[in-house]
Amino acid sequence: KPKAIVIGAGIAGIASAIHLSIKGYDVEVFEANSKPGGKLGEIKMNGFRFDAGPSLFTMPQYVDELFKLAGKNPEDYFKYIKLKEVCRYFYEDGLRLNATSDLDKFARDIEEKTNSTAAEVEHFFKKSETIYEVTHRVFLERSLHKLKSYLHWDTLKSIFRFGQIDAFRTQASANQSFFKDERITQLFNRYATYNGSNPYQAPATLNVIPHFEYHFGAFIPKDGMYGIVKALIKLAEELGIRFHYSQKVEEILYTNENKPKINGVKVNDKTYKAEVVISNLDIWFTYKNLLKGIAEPKKLLTQERSSSALIFYWGMDGNYSDLGLHNIFFTEDYQNEFNAIWKEKTICNDPTVYVNISAKHLRGDAPANAENWFVMINVPANTGQNWDQLIKESRTNIIKKISRILNRNIEKDIICEQILDPRSIESKTGSYQGSLYGNSSNNQFSAFLRHPNFSSKVKNLYFCGGSVHPGGGIPLALLSAKIIDDDISSVVH
Ligand code: FAD
């Protein structure tokens, strides 16, 4: 059997290993941490369980697909529930909106409580669907860097419709024209943060994201987000893939010929040979640390990074019936919040706060009469800010804000705490500057400024994960593995 090595057991690394194993490769995975999952991690503390990173699960079909490819029934490994309520939104002026998966109901709620109409919402989602139709095959499901991608009839049709993807105005200005009520503009501007971008800079093409959430749905895995990792690892091990934990790869080895070809990897000074190597690392570190003697693609690596996050994991004593699984407490001044993050590279005094409580659905995630709060704000990528000071100030601001809006002193209910910030995101998951999604999507050419999924310098070297094409987030990371799979069939053998 030809041998393949995957570096990193993040979600895309695990998926790539499964694809290659099904293709007939003998696959080994080297992971620096003692556990798989990377950013998709898990924390256990004082009887509480928290998903450390992602909390919103969309496009579950990309996970199911891996079981099906292996000839298995996905339900034997992995179960999830479609959410009836997508998110609860709280505003400082007292407005509360429940975004239900029933879009008509959500639109009616908006019409009843705000100056926007159900028709505005409908019009917005029509546009969102059009952007999806035009972009998904070109930008998400195929390589942007292979001629063969452009020779498909559906790709060409999409290219003729590029005028419809709203790439030449910002998301914020587009949304202002969709909605009369600025609180609804704010609600839909928030989707730029799903890939760590700024709605006041990013193209309105990002309005495709709500289509994923409402058309395909939002879900929660029955074993929590970490259940995705556990289920895929089970499948991978059954396929015979060997995982080596706490084994940090030091170098990617290639032959010294005219056209270099992959040779293997070096771990703890030992050489492991392979015909194919896939790196799941942040592409920045792949070049800086592992690819000695290969010139870096400077333009791609110097793009602005996506934002990072500051997260408080709080074990809370008591139940909060006002809250659901996903909750947003909006800032009063969104533009100021994004200016702070993107221009001043700091955190404002009134940040938008996201609270995720998986125990609302998964009772086992918290003790009786208690809740597991994952409390997150968007923050700039790490460029050496005084994080200890910023964390202290933000903690106070967040507690005041939630207490004010819920009219309840939440601080006294915090019984245990852990914190993740851009520094620890970088050290724990190998993400450059702690950014969550690789490069930002703050300009209309971002899609073309992500690294391809293959190396043009070293034959049979591939790159998967959130820092390369097609981008960050679980669904896109899984698609990167799929794009590599399509390519490998035609490259090796
Ligand atoms: P990563 O998770 O980046 O893993 C890379 C792996 O490589 C790590 O395990 C690392 O230890 C390993 N590694 C690094 N260096 C080496 C080496 N030298 N040798 C061996 N191994 C190495 N996405 C969503 O879809 N929904 C969300 O709600 C969401 N929220 C998020 C919230 C937070 C706080 C974070 C951090 C991320 C969030 N994301 C979300 C993004 C999502 O988690 C990532 O896009 C996705 O998990 C990235 O997966 P990846 O395959 O790129 O690998």
Q: Tell me the strand percentage band.
A: 15-25%
Q: Nearest-angstrom radius of gyration?
A: 22 Å
Work out the helicity level. 25-40%
* Low-confidence runs of at least 5 consecutive residues: none
What's a quick, concise take on this entry?
With about 500 residues, this protein is of the alpha/beta class.
Walk me through the topology:
Elements: E1 3-7, H1 11-22, E2 26-30, E3 42-45, E4 48-51, E5 57-58, H2 61-69, E6 80-82, E7 85-90, E8 96-100, H3 103-113, H4 118-141, H5 153-160, H6 171-178, H7 182-189, H8 209-216, E9 218-221, H9 226-238, E10 242-244, E11 249-254, E12 262-267, E13 270-273, E14 276-279, H10 283-290, H11 298-301, E15 308-317, E16 326-329, H12 334-342, E17 353-356, E18 370-379, H13 387-406, E19 414-420, H14 422-429, E20 461-463, H15 474-491
Parallel strand pairs: 1-2, 1-14, 2-10, 7-16, 14-20
Antiparallel strand pairs: 3-4, 5-9, 6-9, 7-8, 11-12, 12-13, 15-18, 15-19, 16-17, 17-18
The structure holds flavin-adenine dinucleotide.
Flavin-adenine dinucleotide binds at residues 7-13, 30-33, 38-40, 53-56, 248-249, 280-281, 309, 311, 425, 429-431, 436-437, 465-466, 472-474, 477.
